[in-house]
Amino acid sequence: MMFNERLVNLLPGRMRNQVAQWFEAAEIFGEMRDPKVLAAIGPAGVRGLLLQRGKQGVPTQMPAAHQAHFDWRYPHDNAEMASLYRRAKEGQWNGDSLPWHTDVDPFNPEVPLIPADFIDTAKLASFGVRLDAREELRLRYSLTAWMLSQFLHGEQGALFAAAQVTEAVQFFDGKMYGSTQVMDEGRHVEVFHRYIDTKLNKLYQINDNLYVVIDSLMTDGRWDMKFLGMQIMVEGLALGAFGVIYKQTKEPLLKELLRNVIQDEARHVHYGVVALREQFRDHLTERERSEREDWAYEVALLMRNRFMAFEVYDEWFAHRLTRAQWRELVSTSPGMMDFRHVMFVRLIPNLREIGLMSPRIVPHYERAGLMRYYHGRSADQLTGEQLLADLH
Amino acid sequence: MVKRTPWIERAKGLVPARWRRDARMVLDGLAGRPPPPYWSTGTSSRAEAPGPSPLPGARSLRVAAVTRETPDAVSLTLVDLRGEAIVYRPGQFFTLALRLNGEVLRRAYSASLPMSEASPPGSVRVTIKRVAGGRVSQHLNERAGAGDVIDVFGPSGSFVVEGAPATLVLIGGGSGATPLLAIAYDALARLPDTRVVFLVGNRSTGDILFCDELAALADRHPGRFVLRHVLSHPPAEWGGGVGMLDAETTARELDALSMEGPAEYFVCGPGAMMDAVRGCLLGRAVEAGNIREERFSSPVHTAAEQPGGDVAVTATVGGRSYAVVNRAHETVLESALRQGAPMAFSCTMGGCGACRMKLREGAMTMEEPNCLSADERAQGYVLTCIGRATRACVLEADPS
Prior knowledge:
The structure holds 2 protein chains of 2 kinds.
Chain A: H1 2-10, H2 13-30, H3 35-50, H4 79-90, H5 121-126, H6 133-168, H7 172-200, E1 202-204, H8 208-218, H9 223-248, H10 252-282, H11 286-306, H12 310-316, H13 323-332, H14 334-353, H15 362-367, H16 384-390
Helix pairs in contact in A: 1-2, 2-3, 3-8, 3-11, 4-7, 4-10, 6-7, 6-8, 6-9, 7-10, 8-9, 9-10, 9-11, 9-14, 10-16, 11-14
Chain B: H1 7-14, H2 17-30, E1 38-40, E2 59-70, E3 73-80, E4 93-100, E5 103-110, E6 124-129, H3 135-143, E7 149-156, E8 167-173, H4 177-190, E9 195-202, H5 211-220, E10 225-231, E11 241-242, H6 247-256, E12 263-268, H7 271-283, E13 291-294, E14 311-317, E15 320-326, H8 332-338, E16 356-366, H9 374-378, E17 381-383, E18 387-397
Parallel strand pairs in B: 8-9, 8-12, 9-10, 10-11, 12-13, 14-18
Antiparallel strand pairs in B: 2-3, 2-7, 3-6, 4-5, 4-7, 14-15, 16-17, 16-18
């Protein structure tokens, strides 16, 4: 790291940020222990981190190779999934019915989108950047727009992944359930986009690391990897992240929007747990299972260590702070810490439940400081209402 | 002479556009030209494509069922889009706001069942009689269908039974029977010691609203429920009362009923009928405090947009002041709700007084007629739901 930093500092100023970014990427992949995991994520990493396919300003084409699983006998093969399907039908809601007439003023300090301590301005000042009250409000507005933009990009990934998973899943009851999830994800794209488009007027580009996760699982042909990636990792992380904003925002439309979305997401993660528990326990070799365990661990770390709002850094501080300073600021600001930690509250118990927390991997999670979430309740033990109640 | 394409351009043509974009990203990054971190939005039309958002303060109700009551009247069963129960008292009304030809028209319709009779539970049934030339009542009678979503305000109104009177006399003309039916159901179910007399006037048998429901109530509560129909154009062999519900007919009908103990009167119907009934009751030494009336009228005059465009309004609600801009195309209430002030309101059409505020400074025009009394006007009260500021205003809510 020190060597990298010295090397970067030798470069002409305008090159520095770009090269520092590549070193960071190289570091991520250098740390991966399992060559199979590296092979699964590596190509997506090149496309996302080096070529920045998500930020090219044009639609991205991703080849998807998976088996569509047809069953012409329509078996009733999983009671828990059938029950989820019934609940999902009853839980449908219309995005148009949210209180869209609400005037959202992102700069009104009396109705803050996120709390004032979300970013540590004292630390920012210690780096020589002083913001006045108006600028602080603008920075928090940018961070909110960034988070919601990443939610939106994640939901686009979830929409397509839900469709693929519905094709590939082996349970017919799962396919029926999956159809409702496709609708749910479409609605989430609708409401997040409408909020960003009509209330915040600012759509951030997809974060490179989020792009890597989505690219990696969209292009992976194995259905259980798509499931693990989207239903457990992305949805699970999103559920934690939504919860932080839901809990902290004072903006009534956003709160209502998230309340509805969280209740849907609770079903999605539950489905992931039900589908994968049996698959990982009974139908995989130990080698295959541990590969998935490692994959989940690497993706968890990728999101925890690298999901750092660098798009906001590029906009605000690219010429005033180094990337390392920004990383330190984000890693230590109370709101952002909460945001990046609470993402794991829901994820870790679910990984335990589907059998991806064997004694082999636990010490690694321990070192990453994530074992504190181990004893939480997994998605199959939680309803949407309980999830919301937990947030109060 | 044919101009030759430079070799570099030809070489570019051999490389797929995707690879060229990839290479461009890498080179731009090194040259200190990173991709833009965000896009400005707000130009997408997707959000505008579906139906308009609810009006400020309205709840969206879905028409679950349409029942034809008479050739000129229809009942709509409305349910909350979110599945929440609709809570109201028998005798109260709801304001339905319809967008017709780009204009928002608001009309008050009473619930014709109490909550305890609502089917499905949590719904509300409102009954709409066609009014000659009435755009909303025509539309609802001819076009309303299951699945329609309507912006609804309320419940509003104080046309409700308090306590347990010994006798409840309900006098209705035409669609005035609507709130009275809800009151009758509720009193018969809830007040075992109350006797209910229902005197209802119509033109002919085909115009009688809730004919079967009323008959069924009479069968279910013999002795406690007295039902009397009066027709101005009765058929041959008609056993009920005959005539218009004017002072004379009302007096004759009431004389024929044996009334014991103190009675409370609930009157609802066309204006002329209500005036006649009121005169008759006062003439029979009924105390004014025992006569409750429900008058329906929709504003005749619609205030135009204020000439100066946006006007500043300061509204003090719950001890806090809110600075609001009254937009040219909105009422004060609409602007204030849209801008986050916690205004009180209910019917949004000048009929219930829930949005009453004191105008301390400035000037405001209001739609007429409305429910403000001459006394209230003299004290400087205004209704924000039908008011538009013409000069900068300072408004204050009643401390209560």
